[in-house]
Design goal:
The complex is a heterodimer of chains A (about 170) and B (about 300).
Chain A lengths: L9 H23 L2 H17 L9 H15 L11 E2 L10 H19 L3 H11 L5 H8 L3 H19 L3
Helix pairs in contact in A: 1-2, 1-3, 1-5, 2-3, 4-7, 5-7, 6-7
Chain B lengths: L1 H9 L5 H8 L2 H14 L1 E2 L5 H26 L1 H20 L2 E5 L5 E4 L5 E4 L3 E5 L8 E12 L6 E5 L2 E5 L3 E7 L2 E8 L1 E6 L2 E6 L2 E6 L2 E7 L11 E8 H12 L3 E4 L6 E7 L3 H12 L1 E6 L3 E6 L1
Parallel strand pairs in B: 6-7, 16-19
Antiparallel strand pairs in B: 2-5, 3-4, 4-6, 5-6, 6-9, 7-8, 8-11, 9-10, 10-13, 11-12, 13-14, 15-17, 18-19
Helix pairs in contact in B: 1-2, 1-3
The chains are: A mainly alpha (about 170), B alpha+beta (about 300).
Chain lengths: ~170, ~300
């Protein structure tokens, strides 16, 4: 990205939005589990970026957005149990599966969703950023401001916790 | 070891052989399963286009709000500047226009309503251009002839009285304590010292020290001075001499003479010596012209 780019320029701002909005949205959704809340927080963050466009160069926009969005999330009164609902991306291959299998799969999904809810916010966020958003550990570490080792720890803990809950151990 | 491979798997950096190794363990098989299944999920409620549209709206709304807040915060500053600007504007537009005729000069000009004013030497008129059409009032120091366009009241204010007319031609002379108004056409009202008189065409009035000293009929359509001649009717010598000074730009000293001596007559504006003669001879006075000391008029 050329250094003369300025976020105050509409085209640059739009480009930033286009590349970062989805991940940012996911990030916040993983935390709060509420669609409208996530949408609002993302909008707030991007508006703040616009208001501070003179002070934030394009390469710093990502960390700015995540920080602002996270802070906004923390500011919101949210002492409710987070229920995450996930939509399955690809439909099951119906031809190949038996009804029994499909049922089992549905069951599994439900259990998984619930289990995800029961993870700590830290574990869940890191885990879903990796799984759903497809982010590598290094990027997750950067965004969450933690070490790669810490990311590894959260991932391991998440899987352990999920497995235990699903298997009813 | 398995942990390492697990993370490789999660980072999508695992090789086939490594994956097989990992799958050997039931626990890790479960992990892989859970991980894979979770990856199938999508977060709901994300529509980039829609979000952008909403964002654009919010942005606009905030910008408007911000502008309002900004104004409010600096309200006092803006008010102060505004007041100064308005005051400045009013001051400038209300500044009076001044027209003056200097020594040995006659000057004519038009008022905004096309009324004509001719100033005699050493005279000054002051009026407000922008409010002229609402109120025709000017102040006069010295002497001027007015040809007033028909319309609303027209006032000439002097320190000795006010002359009010409605479409007429008249001459006003306000010098020292000599207030002389001549009406050539139409009708004129002269207010002075709490009194009010009407002056029809062909008449003139002289007021000195707040009271009428003479009223007389006059002829002609314009005062003599407009034809380069100053005419006097029972005028004090000091005023006659003062007029001569104005017309010629000279200094005249009266040497041991009663300046209240009266003179009736006229002198030309075109020849100083001739002028001096026409004044001095009837009064049996003599004069000298000295390059350094100017003109001296003295008695016999």
């Amino acid at each position: 990205m050329p250094t003369q780019d300025n976020v105050c320029e509409e085209s640059v701002y739009h480009r930033v939005f286009h590349s970062l909005s989805a991940s940012l949205y996911n990030f916040i959704y993983f935390k709060c589990g509420n669609v409208s809340q996530a949408q609002d927080l993302v909008q707030e963050a991007f508006i703040k970026l616009w208001e501070n466009c003179e002070k934030v160069p394009p390469d710093k926009a990502k960390s700015f957005l995540y920080t602002v969005c996270n802070n906004a999330f923390l500011n919101e009164v949210a002492h409710k149990k987070i229920v995450l609902k996930y939509v399955e991306k690809t439909g099951p291959n119906i031809n190949e599966q038996s009804p029994q299998y499909l049922l089992e799969e549905k069951e599994f999904e439900k259990k998984l969703q619930t289990a995800l809810t029961n993870l700590t916010e830290a574990q869940r966020t890191a885990f879903l950023m990796n799984r759903i958003d497809g982010k590598k550990y290094r990027e997750i570490a950067e965004i969450l401001n933690i070490s790669v080792k810490a990311v590894e720890k959260r991932m391991s803990q998440a899987l352990e916790s999920l497995r235990k809950e699903i298997k009813n151990i | 070891m398995s942990e390492k491979l697990l993370h490789k798997f999660l980072n999508d950096e695992i090789s086939e052989t490594e994956l097989e190794t990992l799958k050997a363990s039931e626990v890790y098989r479960d992990y892989i399963n859970i991980a894979a299944q979770t990856a199938q999920f999508q977060t709901p409620g994300f529509d980039r286009e829609q979000l952008w549209a909403k964002l654009a709206e919010k942005k606009k709304a905030k910008e408007k709000k911000t502008v309002k807040l900004f104004l409010y915060k600096n309200m006092l500053k803006y008010a102060a500047v505004f007041v100064l600007l308005v005051a400045g504007y009013f001051y400038v537009t209300n500044l009076d226009a001044t027209v003056s005729a200097g020594i040995a000069e006659k000057r004519s000009f038009n008022l905004p309503d096309d009324s004509e004013v001719v100033l005699n030497a050493g005279s000054k008129v002051n009026y407000n251009k922008s409010s002229w059409n609402n109120e025709r009032v000017l102040s006069l120091e010295g002497e001027a002839f007015f040809d007033v366009a028909k319309g609303k009241k027209f006032d000439v204010e002097t320190t000795q009285g006010i002359v009010s007319v409605l479409g007429t031609q008249f001459n006003v002379q306000s010098r020292n304590n000599h207030f002389h108004v001549s009406c050539y056409e139409g009708l004129v009202r002269v207010s002075f010292n709490g009194e009010d008189i009407q002056l029809p065409a062909g008449n003139s009035v002289i007021i000195e020290d707040g009271s009428i000293v003479a009223r007389q009929e006059i002829s002609g359509t314009q005062p003599g001075w407009m034809f380069d001649e100053s005419t006097f009717e029972n005028m004090t010598l000091e005023n006659v001499v003062a007029e001569m000074e104005r017309q010629y730009g000279v200094t005249i000293t009266l040497d041991n003479l009663d300046e209240k001596m009266r003179f009736s007559g006229a002198f030309t504006h075109k020849n100083l010596e001739a002028a001096l003669k026409t004044v001095c001879v009837p009064l049996q006075l003599k004069y000298t012209i000295d390059k350094q000391r100017g003109i001296t008029i003295y008695g016999d």
